[in-house]
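Chain X:
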Amino acid sequence: MSIEALRGRIPDYAKDIRLNLGSLANETILNDQQKYGCFFASALATGNGHVIRAINEEIADKMSPEAIEAAKSAAAIMGMNNVYYRFLHLTKDPTYKTLPAKLRMNVLGNPGVDKADFELWSLAVSAINGCGMCIDAHEAVVRKAGMSTEMVQTAARIASVVAAAAAVIDGEDALS
């Protein structure tokens, strides 16, 4: 299954999601590695098997094996960090913010691809997982690396549409 096949699974009541998947797949503000890494890391963050398989098929000839592994790593590490740092953000006790995280995050230092691309994918996953602290941290890194606000917005748009596609498919699967 590809993005086109995924679009075919989106029912008419979610036509906007279907149209947005198509337009974002053709987006040119991000290079292919950045764009498809956002798609894949976002798909992994949703946990929806249909979406993950569709995006995985789409990226197979568009991303290097190293970039695919890095997108997987971004989804994995943010799955952990988004929970922890959202906890820090939401708790009223400031003591927790003074304690070391004591969580291994080695991949952040050496993701195997351009650091800015990895950070962009981490930002997309953080948007799906709703961690404001992580969104702010990753946005600052990619902006410092020279990415524009439009590039950051595109990553967030990809994350939002992939998450919506997963929600629609989950809902449809639950109804059948």
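Chain Y:
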Amino acid sequence: MLFVGDDWAEDHHDVEVQDAHGRAIRAARLLEGVDGMTRFHELVAGFLPVDAKPSDVLVCIETGRGSWVRALVAAGYQVYGVNPKQAARHRELLSLPGAKSDKADVYSLADMVRTGRHQLRQVAADSDLAEAVKVVARAHQTLIWERTRHTLRLRAALRDYFPAALVACQVLTLTGADALELLAKAPTPAAAAKLTVTQISAALKKARRRDIAAKATAIQQALRTEHLGQADVVAGAYAATVRVTVAVLQTLNTEIRTLEGQVEAYFGQHPDAEVYLSQPGIGVILGARVLAEFGDAAGRYADAKSRKNYAGTAPITRQSGKSKTVHARFIHNDRLVDALHMQAGAAILHDPGVRAYYDELRRREIGHNAALRQVGNRLVGILHGCLKTTSHYSQTTAWSHHTQPAAA
């Protein structure tokens, strides 16, 4: 077998090939792209016997995604994507003084896969459709996060020079099309005070609001109330920044709706979509996010516990002597944890079995967030079973162990 360490950068890869005894056979710097991958194949093939298979080559690299990694997996190599923190700890074992260089890093990666591959997770290739779902689902979520950031900046600016606008927006949503249109039309207190009920009603009607007359009157009154403000020149400067932020938010709203359609289209084509949609608390967008982060490679998760550990919902136990504590996992996939938290929050509102489990946790004086985390952990296990058997969610099957004692 051959063991290859791959220290990647944006435009090149430093690689080192080791034999079964840890001796460095060859080291090279390969360019990113087709030419570099061709040289990688030639480099490895030069040290393999004629009857060897690509799976006899084990590659260790500090990433589990990207076109380079997918090309390695497609070629049949065993690829292990390691966390940079894992690689740093192994490097400390080999160099106690803490010396670091590209040559030492690539040697450490090759040695790591040679001596500790049984403790590493092999990269499993997802289907092309799952990769497509991941691309659009992550882009959609990123735009939503960006909209939240710009909304907070807009709120902070309005609080500083135009607090009456925030009062008026209590009737609406600050990121709504009508609120943004009114702010774009009248970003200063003086201009907003001149808005007529007709102008406000037109914006509300365009956004398809209900009870337009009452809301337009309430908004006009809020905009014309006295408030602590800034000097006109300062208010004008704030208004210039608000116009830009409003324009960004309007663009984000449009593109989020566009990407939402793409998420639905790609997710609907996946063969596991119906299984995900059958889960409590999961709709199309959440289902796409969970599928994107879990992937669909067969055998990636040996059991439900492995999936829970990756999801970050399973707790961590720390025990030393007579001390034993249980903690939440703080190192996790943020996107997946966010999606599972939202799923748990929706599931307790619509599924009686999930709600009963949540109420049981709360009766044990477990906090709301901790209870949602445990609910999410249970839902991940249920999802794993459904995907393994290609079956839809069944409330009776999922929660029978909770309901049987009560029935007895």
